[in-house]
Amino acid sequence: MTDTLLFLRQLISRPKQISAIAPSSRFLARAMTAALSPASGRVVEFGPGTGVLTRAILAAGVKPQNLTLFEFNPDFVSHLRSSFPGVTVHNTGAQTAATHVPKGVSAVISGLPLLSMPFEVREAIVRAAFDVLTPDGIYVQFTYGGKPAVSPDQMRALGLTVEQTAHVLFNLPPARVHTFRRA
What we know:
The protein is α/β, with parallel strands linked by helices. The chain is built from 8 helices and 7 strands, in the order αααβαβαβαβαβαββ. The protein has a single domain (3-182), classed as Vaccinia Virus protein VP39 (Rossmann fold), CATH 3.40.50.150. A 7-stranded mixed sheet has the order 3-2-1-4-5-7-6, with helices on both faces.
C-alpha cells in the first residue's frame, strides 16, 4: 500500500487521530529537520504517521539505529517497521517516551497534531520530550495556525522558549515550524 493510500484510509477511519487533510510535504519535512546532521546523535520522532518526516530525518544523516519513533496508530506502526529497518518503533503514545528512551537525545521532531489535543495531554507530550532531551536539545513542532502549539502559560510552566524557524507555504495546509528550547 502506498503512503498516500494508507494515510487516506486512516484519515477516513480515524479522523480525530489524524487531524490533517494531507500527509506532510517534503518541504515541511526539510524545514522540520533542518537542524539535523550526521553528528546529531540520537533523535526521537513523535507521530511519524506514514514516515514523511522519518525519511527526512534519515536523509539528514541520522543513522537508523539512532532514531526512535513513537506512533499510536497500529496500522502506521506496521508500515513504519517494514519501511524503515533498523529504526526503533514504539506503538505507544509520545507521553511515554521517558520510559522507553534514555536521556541524551539531541532532538525530538514532532508531527503530532498538538492543537487538537486536550491541554493536559499536550503538556505531557512536551514534558516527555524534554525529559529525554540533552540540556541543549531541541523540540521541533509544526502547526497550521499562526501561534506555537504550546501556550505561553505552558512554556513558562515548562521553562521553555520558542522561535519560529520556518513558514512553509508548500504544504497542505501551509504550516509554521517552531523550535522549542529550555530557557
